[in-house]
Amino acid sequence: MSRKRNFEEQEIGILLSTYKKNFEILNAKFGNAITNKKKKQKWEELANAVNSVRKQNRTVDEIKHKWKDLLSRAKKDFSNRRHPKTGGGPKPTEGPYTDIVLDIIGEASPVLIGISSGGESALQDAKSDDDSNLTNDTNVDNVNQTGSYAVEVSTEPNSTEFTIKD
Asked: Residue ranges of the Myb/SANT-like DNA-binding domain (predicted)?
């Protein structure tokens, strides 16, 4: 079996525009409103749209892989923008679709900057000599003392609760 041709600009353009139209469904968590079946249907629609441009008969998996490649490159370019390399040498080049992908996912996306609270990122390192200095009113980011503790931050909106674990 021979290798398929690289994605052409038109195919990538259709992939990006169709993905943007279906962004909410393709990125939503599963639940009552969004099911696996609905997501599969949207990916199939996306593949059909890409295949309508060129008769490559690309599979859903190939389309997903291309999206992941575009997203990965955009994340790398975004990181290079936020943390430019110092020293000599040429400036790193960005992918041709980076700005479009960043526009689709949003530059404030947890995909790019992480999750500020909740889940695994709720565990943060804080330093304290005296546990009594930490109250529910203490901002964990501003604790600057000695000692090392894991801090679990509440995921409830507007909550300042957290638990210190030795």
From this structure: 3-77
